[in-house]
Amino acid sequence: MTLADLPLGPLERALLDSLRRLDPQADDSVLAAAALCSQALGAGDVCLPLARWAGRRPWPEQPFALPALAAWQERLRASPLVGAPGVYAPLILDQGRLYLARYQAYEVRLAEQLLARVERRPAVDEERLAESLARLFAFNRQQPDWQRLAAAQAVRGNLAVISGGPGTGKTTTVVRLLAVLLEQPGGERLAIGLVAPTGKAAARMAEAIRNAKAELPVSAAVKAALPEEARTLHRLLGSRGDSPAVRHHAGNPLPLDVLVVDEASMVDLALMAKLVDALPPQARLILLGDKDQLAAVEAGAVFAELCEGQGFSAATAAELQRLTGQPVPAGAPRSRLGEAVVLLTHSHRFAGDSGIGELARRINGGDVAGTLSLLEESREDLAWHGQPSLATLLERLEQGYLPYLEAAQTGDPAAAFAAFNAFRALCAQREGPFGVAGLNEGLEARFKRRLRREARDNWYPGRALMVRQNDYALGLFNGDIGLCLPTAEGLRVFFEGENGFRAFAPARLPSHDSAFAMTVHKSQGSEFAEVLLVLPEASSPLLTRSLLYTGITRAKRKVELWALAERLADCVRTRAERAAGLAARLALAEAAPPGDEQLRLF
User: For residue 393, which of 381, 383, 405 has the smallest C-alpha distance?
Assistant: First the structure.
């Protein structure tokens, strides 16, 4: 059989057509590798790990099989379509990993710049630093106080990676560490930027910092210097429509001394590489996120890779103990970025007896039996429906959204968004009876009957929607949530922005979908008072530990799970895998495991 018979998508076929024009004699195993690289990117992988695919039939329904590893690598090296690192070619073979050239360049450049940044040590007034830390983190009683240690490392270096689950105080930490920076000599001149991947996350970050800084034990001048506004990454970099180019880059750097990136786990490899490239070398970069959450929708699991190999050497632990008065456990880092990484472990949101907090811990620990037994207990903040039916689910969802539907009729965007964020339905996937599309269709039919609207009416007061296409002219981006509300001028769709609400006529909106139910992926960066999480009846590769963890931790007060026990077990026992090489590029040489040491799975 030929490659023309393989079940390839239009993107893969276009790629193969292009490669055949460059090399009409290209070997089928080389072209198949290119197609698999393209498919891997669509699945979130940065590269194709050859050892995982060699000798296999990549499309099981077809007889086409790939060569054994040694023979396959030999054919790839012999092809003019494939180059070694540093060679100009469409495909790059790099230590057992095959990349589309652009993504290999992103990964290499990002690793180089992060390593250069972590080696640069800014001047610090240690006496003033110690005093600021003691005053600003005096409220913490945990030993060690990881928030204080994270702030110390962020001030002492040009790179800080701070990971923590919900309620561990990432925003509290960052607003206080910024105050510590502002109290350093020359701090009053610092240009500080706050960014997040989505408009919703940026608005939440800005609001949290505005609320937190009011109680800081600092001077009025320091409070005034703390930033109150946050932007999206796309707006910060100056994205240019559908072009991969951005306005700010190494040749036109951002005018910043400090950049804080919230929800960094949502940032894909390409965007992170562009961001670091655009930041001046002497600027501090502070990344906040949760390494256990779902990775970015696009290719890469950058934040999780950066958190690999965390630890403090004995010398660094002693320095931190002297500066903070905290006991600091020493453990040799296994990454050259390891000492820039701090993991926050104490949850202030979920108390010791919190069902949600305990459920999150059992999920992350891969404890299937413990997860199911906890859900069978009578916890106030947990509910489990182990035999869900579609009719019962739709009835429950309708009741859950009624307070929002009533608030929407008033036309008050603040009241409508507050009510909408009090309850949210999350799904693992888009299609199927328990997917986003089916639940939204069923709910909208019920809401239209309740509001006495015609079934054909696309717009009605209370319709919730999600933008699925970036519109740079309107400042609306994929994932933004809008609510359709009545106004004196007719129906308008309101969006939460960085500076309040913005209203648009429905006809002006870019491509969008209804959003009463949304995927867990799209819910990242959001919090809701109550979450109802639905899993499909059939097993799916989407059902992973990180998906379940991310879904339940969107809730602040209560989680309802509508899922078969078998599907919950699938989630807990399945770790999400993403092939990438960033962690290997950052790892200390002696820390690499035997065998295919250059491959990391996330």
Answer: 383
Q: Residues 6 or more apart from 290 whose CB is under 8 A from it?
A: 163, 164, 165, 166, 265, 553
- Other CB atoms within a 10 A radius of the CB of residue 475 amount to 16
Alpha carbon distances (Å) from 104 to 88, 95, 293, 583 = 11, 11, 24, 13
- Statement: residue 594 has pLDDT above 60: no
Q: For residue 106, what pLDDT is reported?
A: 93
Distance between CA 525 and CA 370 in Å, rounded? 27
- Token pair 């599907």 is found at 567
Asked if 354 and 381 touch (Cβ cutoff 8 Å), the reply is yes
Upstream peptide bond of 144 is cis (omega within 30 degrees of 0): yes
Q: Give CA 574 to chain center in angstroms.
A: 19
DSSP string, 370-413: HHHHHHHS--TTEEEESS--HHHHHHHHHHHHHHHHHHHTTT-H
Token code pair at residue 173:
């930490």
Looking at residue 569, what is its pLDDT? 92
- Across 33-164, the runs of DSSP E, i.e. the strands, are 48-49, 82-83, 91-94, 97-100, 159-164
pLDDT band at 356 (very low <50, low <70, confident <90, very high): confident
Four-residue CA torsion sign, 332, 336, 338, 339: positive
Q: What are the residue ranges of helices labelled H in 157-232? A: 170-182, 199-213, 220-225
- 198-218 as b/e: b if 16+ CB within 10 A: bbbbbbbbbebbeebbeebeb
Q: Does residue 83 surpass a pLDDT of 80?
A: yes
| 312: alpha, beta or left? (left if phi > 0; alpha if psi -120 to 50) | beta
Alpha-carbon gap, residue 191 to 384, rounded angstroms:
48
Residue at 44: amino acid letter: G
- Three state DSSP letters for 515-545: CCEEEHHHHCCCCEEEEEEECCCCCCCCCCH
Alpha carbon of residue 517 to chain centroid: 19
Tell me which amino acid residue 128 is: R
Mean of pLDDT over the chain = 86
Q: So what's the pLDDT on residue 592?
A: 43
207-211: average pLDDT: 83
pLDDT in tens, 481-498: 899 999 988 889 999 876
Residue carrying the six token digits 């329904």: 61
List 230's β-bridge partners, or say none: none
Q: What are the pLDDT digits (tens) for 239-248?
A: 766 667 778 7
Task: Fill in the amino acid letter for 434.
Answer: F
pLDDT exceeding 70 applies to what percent of the chain?
95
Q: What is the mean pLDDT of residues 293-319?
A: 83
**491-496: long-range contacts, CB 8 A cutoff, minimum separation 24:** 491/459, 491/460, 491/461, 493/465, 494/413, 494/416, 494/417, 495/199, 496/199, 496/200, 496/203, 496/417
32 contacts 3 by C-beta, under 8 angstroms: yes
